[in-house]
Specification:
six-stranded antiparallel beta sheet, about 350 residues, alpha/beta, nine-stranded mixed beta sheet
């Protein structure tokens, strides 16, 4: 009987945040101080109208959240990364790590599932790009989705997962489960708040024993990078992950830096060769100042030479024209693995998808 009371407590103590938690147009809530709150509404960050009455109000809210999560915030454990009952992502950080004030970030769970039609309407995809990406996923191409914070990487990953054959088994791995993966035969793993210090790389190695056809990692940020490459190269083709980077080529450099920092003792040339022979496509996303999220480039990784990676743009965003194919034909298409009309990659060739 105690759990319902605790749940009610944290909601009752949410004060000014209650309005924003219930507003479907608000995707993120950022509490910097009791009297300084920001929200992201329809992709644009703005100062929130409401605030806590005082610092005690903010502290009571934090204490009620910690009680619900069963977590004690203190000097030895000054932050909390968890998931609320509705799937929203919660992060709390308190002094001494938070210098001025405790801070809260809530990334709200999407109320309804995104699909490719949703992204087409939003301008993130168009019909032609959607058709191409569906074929790339169906043909088990390894895909890296790159972009900045809030650029739509996780949403795109979820939409791409809907193109996976229903007969395939998928294992997903996240720190805190928030991806909306549209697969029937799915096992979801998360590191969560395990006190044993379980990492994504540990779960990835365990996932290889679970007979997955594909592995999806919510975000590649550390030691799991090398294990992910090995998995993609050993019978788990068609796997996907996201990475923080400002461009598609930067994503490849960041991936090799993660592998080096993980302690793998291998020459840089060998690491670059592994990346170039494993990652098939990089999808670069960005968010413009007006809050719109879009795919800015789809890059095929062909190989490497003495100068670095050999790549070709398949699609590229052009101001005033949108996302457009570059006339380059990817390798898996030439290998007759994909079903494409003859003139598909001509820049002026149009595709109209049926619902």
């Amino acid at each position: 009987m105690s759990t319902p009371r605790v749940v009610a407590d944290w909601k009752q103590e949410s004060g000014p945040l209650k309005t924003y938690l219930n507003d479907p147009n608000i995707s993120e809530i950022m509490v910097n101080r009791w009297d300084l709150i920001f929200i992201e509404r329809n992709g644009v960050i703005e100062v929130a109208e409401y605030k806590f009455h005082n610092a005690d109000g903010l502290n009571r809210f934090i204490q009620s959240l910690c009680a619900f999560m069963g977590w004690d915030l203190n000097r030895k454990s000054p932050y909390l990364d968890a998931r609320l009952p509705d799937g929203s992502r919660l992060n709390i950080v308190v002094p001494p790590v938070a210098f001025e004030s405790p801070a809260i970030t809530i990334r709200k769970a999407t109320v309804s599932n995104f699909n490719y039609q949703t992204l087409i309407k939003a301008g993130t995809f168009d019909d032609k790009l959607t058709y191409f990406l569906k074929q790339a996923v169906t043909c088990r191409q390894n895909i890296l989705i790159s972009g900045g914070t809030g650029s739509g990487k996780t949403t795109i990953l979820g939409v791409l997962s809907s193109f996976i054959n229903s007969k395939e088994r998928v294992v997903s791995i996240e720190d805190t489960a928030e991806m909306q993966i549209n697969v029937k035969n799915l096992v979801r793993l998360e590191t969560g708040m395990t006190e044993e210090g379980i990492r994504q790389s540990d779960l990835l190695r365990n996932a290889l024993r679970m007979r997955p056809d594909r592995i999806i990692i919510g975000e590649c940020r550390g030691a799991e990078a090398f294990d992910m490459l090995m998995a993609m190269n050993t019978g788990h083709e068609g796997s996907m992950t996201t990475i923080h980077a400002n461009s598609a080529t930067d994503a490849l450099r960041r991936l090799e830096a993660m592998i080096i920092r993980s302690g793998i003792e291998a020459p840089l040339e060998m690491i670059q060769h592994d990346i170039a022979s494993t990652i098939d496509f990089v999808i670069q996303t960005n968010r413009s100042t007006d809050g719109k999220r879009r795919v800015s480039e789809v890059l095929e990784v062909i190989g490497r030479n003495e100068s670095g990676y050999i790549t070709e743009s398949v699609f590229k965003y052009i101001d005033g024209m949108g996302i457009s194919s570059t006339a380059y034909v990817p390798k898996f298409v030439l290998d007759a693995k994909g079903k494409f009309p003859g003139q598909f990659f001509d820049a002026d060739y149009k595709v109209k998808l049926t619902a």
